[in-house]
Amino acid sequence: MRIPAPIAYIVLYVALYAAFGAASPFWPQFFETRALASQQIGLILAAAMLTRLVFGPLVAMLADRLGSLRLVLAGCAAAAAAAAVALLWDDKFWFLLLVALVQAAALAPTTSIADALSVNTARPRFAGRPFEYGWIRGTASAAFVLGTLITGQLVSPADLTPVIWMNAAFLIAAAGATALLPGQARSQRSRSFVLSEMKALISVSQFRIMIIASALIYGSHAVHDAFAVIRWSDAGISTSAISFLWSEAVIAEVLVFMLAGPPLLDRIGVRGAAILAAAVGIVRWSVAGMITSVLPLSLIQPLHGVTFALLHLACMRVMGILVAASVAATAQSLYAFGSGALTAILTFLSGELYASYGGAAFFPMAALCVLALPFAWFGFANGRC
């Protein structure tokens, strides 16, 4: 049965991001129930992050070379589901580390390939209206939260096996959802063709600068993501208030993706959106470094919709124009690699910054957004594309 392409992509994204939401917040606690020490848990999580950075571009290039993004995406989702279930077989550290790295390698290209497929199919007519990528991505963010909430109701401190089964079930659903996507012409390409296309893409200065600008702004979230909850808790903010503040950011992300972002992009263009994201980042992190009161924090948390969601929409719109379909997955993986690598480095450094300077650790993050401003201007030069 063939369903409309936008609905098919929504099904895929909901399943994929629900799988992420069902597991990623719970992995440290799951490994703890397997009698692993804190150092071992940290090693698994750090190694998985490095594995994703390496395998994301490699598998995406393979998908472009094979000319079958749907097949590779389905295979990666199924392999990740199998790896999740394998985590239940043994409690030995080295086994858990190996399986976790296998799953990380399988998951690494999934979002890049999904974005490559959906961006190439952006703005089809649906019910008489253009259907935006942001609507698809917004449902993904909502699905992440839903996956977390569902799994949170199923687990207990002594039994976190529902994390495995929910993660695996959603990943299998994502693999099956690829069959619903509209068919694409499949043509296997030589390695030299893919490499030449990738070199041509990297030679485009606007693409390179866009990656730098987005990496700087995304990376500026490092201190917030790692230490905001600790800072708020130390300041005496209750757990219910912290939950509210965190939820505000997620809700703003969904609203910008689905409602505010697309028309705002049409109005101010991608350059305006990127500059706005950098400017808002300067304000957000500067204020976050100075205050720990709930009211002002509740006013800046929704700015996440600009510093992340609006910028991501702008990047996807630029990619849809600059990137040829033959290297779409590779381009998406390079975009993800840039922000992922810098975020990993900044997350590592944020520990030292926060330990030494406390809330003032947010100020270097604001400085990164200042640095991003000229890159935003030149990297998003197509104005209203």
How would you summarize the topology of this molecule?
Elements: H1 5-23, H2 27-33, H3 38-66, H4 69-86, H5 93-107, H6 110-120, E1 125-126, E2 129-130, H7 133-154, H8 161-177, H9 191-202, H10 205-219, H11 222-234, H12 239-290, H13 294-300, H14 304-322, H15 328-357, H16 362-379
Antiparallel strand pairs: 1-2
Helix pairs in contact: 1-6, 1-7, 1-8, 2-3, 3-4, 3-5, 3-15, 4-5, 4-6, 4-8, 6-15, 7-12, 10-14, 10-15, 10-16, 11-15, 12-13, 12-14, 12-16
Description:
The protein has 385 residues and is mainly alpha-helical. It is 79% helix and 1% strand. It has 16 helices and two strands. Strands 1-2 form a two-stranded antiparallel ribbon. Helix 4 (69-86) packs antiparallel against helix 8 and helix 7 (133-154) packs across helix 12 (239-290). It starts with a helix and ends in a 6-residue tail after the last helix.
Largest sheet, order of strands side by side? 1-2
Strand residue content: under 5%
Strand count = 2
Helicity level: over 70%
- Overall pLDDT confidence: 88
Distance between the termini: 35 Å
Structural category: mainly alpha
Q: What is the tally of helical segments?
A: 16
Quick take:
By secondary structure, this protein is mostly helical. It has helices at residues 5-23, 27-33, 38-66, 69-86, 93-107, 110-120, 133-154, 161-177, 191-202, 205-219, 222-234, 239-290, 294-300, 304-322, 328-357, 362-379; strands at residues 125-126, 129-130.
